[in-house]
Amino acid sequence: MWVHNAFQTIAVVNLEPGGHGTRARVTFRSYYYVAAFMTVWIGAVLLFNVVVVGEELTGSGQIGDLAYTLPFLAFGFAFVAFGRLIARREAPTLLDFIRQTIGAQDLPPELKPSC
User: pLDDT-based confidence at 58, cuts 50/70/90?
Assistant: First the structure.
């Protein structure tokens, strides 16, 4: 209640006619702006770390500089992992809500997709 999780799971539902009724295609994802921000964050930190390592290899940098830059990279990955940990139970709940809302029935085993 007190935590706003920007990594919350979004369900995108596409309904289309199928051979045995209506086919519901559900895609679970995060908000696009969250994915874009984390991509830019991790990409920029990776690029900065490559520059620092390159300077160290050419002799113009100091190895201590990595002690300042690597925590930013670790923070980016930890932030994504923590956000996903918080949101891990949302997908089954959303799928159950979608099933109840559209009155979906489980398919017999011979009609279930193999993937």
Answer: confident
